[in-house]
Amino acid sequence: MGLTILGIESSCDDTSAAILKDTYIYSNVISGQEVHKNYGGVVPELASRAHQQHIIPVVDQAFKKAEIAKDQVDAIAFTQGPGLLGSLMVGTSFAKAFALAKNIPLIGVNHLQAHILSHFIRDPEEKEHSVPRFPFLCLLVSGGHTQLTVVRDYLEMEIIGETIDDAAGEAFDKAGKIMNLPYPAGPIIDQKAREGDPHAFKFTRPNISDLNYSFSGLKTAFLYFLRDRVKENKNFINEHFSDLCASLQYTIVDILMDKLIRAYEITGIKEIAIAGGVAANSGLKQAVSDAAGKYGWNVYIPRFEYTMDNAAMIAMVGYYKYLRGDFENMDAVPHARLRY
């Protein structure tokens, strides 16, 4: 049957479990948390409580969908960080208990490395699967993280640029909150941006000389811009909603692409991968496609369900760490901040 890994993901507000056999995913169950929509963002205490309620049913469903028994698992991989500490503790505690009960290895996984390795997830029914060749450049863009990484091997990665404040996904959501959009606002902005003029409004861009990102200034500029316009016209947001979404998205994507292109020029790497929840953004995908035609890139974007937080990507990292014999002891603890 090959090597079987149970993956557990609980870094934020999604509880997920997956069963991987070698590099093939046989189940990937995700339970979201609707409660956070009432607060305009993730509430850590509520998230950790929901994980406690969801984790047993989610794991049970993962085994049922994969049609394997718990005794057939060779190791359990869990998200060790980065993420919300309370949420991480739930997944860590479950993984340690399962590993102890079944006497199998325990594998701690960096959540960001897992996003990058989501490109290598394969489904059993999939006839063809195109993956990036090493070394490749990965732009990881999510609600909590924005990074540029040179990936030399499955577990050999070097961060060459990252956000110094807010992440790109966070900028989308916070700007959406300013416009009274429900959480998460990113998908709504993406949808409405297709109907608007991306050049209707210009917003402040960061002046960062290296490959790092910054989005806090854009968020503040957007807030002040709307404050002043609404003073003049209380219906300004409603009357210009599509143009606001298009201009905001264009600015965020342009900031992301500027550093990605610069990273390509520095490294000469034409294998380009996009990962994280914002990889599903249509504006970013179009910009990367346009750049691919201009610079001769080979571009890779995971399937939609693997761009979001999921246990399949955790199990994938667990597979390669198992092959290397990289295991955790029972004194393993989660880390809100964790670098690779």
Describe the model.
This protein has 340 residues and is an alpha/beta fold. The chain folds into 2 domains: 4-121 and 306-324, ATPase, nucleotide binding domain (Nucleotidyltransferase, domain 5, 2-Layer Sandwich); 136-301, 2-Layer Sandwich (Nucleotidyltransferase, domain 5). It is 43% helix and 18% strand. It is built from 11 helices and 10 strands. The protein has a 5-stranded mixed sheet, sandwiched between helices. It has a 5-stranded mixed sheet with strand order 8-7-6-9-10, with helices on both faces. β4, α2 (85-102) and β5 (106-110) form a beta-alpha-beta unit. α3 packs across α11 (311-324), α4 (168-178) packs antiparallel against α8 (241-267) and α8 runs parallel beside α9. The protein is globular, with a radius of gyration of 20 Å. The chain starts with a strand and ends in a 16-residue tail after the last helix. The relative contact order is 0.19. The mean pLDDT is 94.
Distance from first to last alpha carbon:
31 Å
> Strand portion, in percent?
15-25%
Report Rg: 20 Å
Q: What's the total helix number?
A: 11
Name of the CATH homologous superfamily of the largest domain: ATPase, nucleotide binding domain
Low-confidence stretches: none
Say what the CATH topology of the largest domain is.
Nucleotidyltransferase, domain 5
Number of strands: 10
CATH architecture call of the largest domain? 2-Layer Sandwich
Overall geometry: globular
Please identify the structural class as seen in this structure. Answer: alpha/beta
CATH class of the largest domain: Alpha Beta
Q: Largest beta sheet: what is the strand line-up?
A: 3-2-1-4-5
Total domain count: 2
The biggest beta sheet reads: 5 strands, mixed
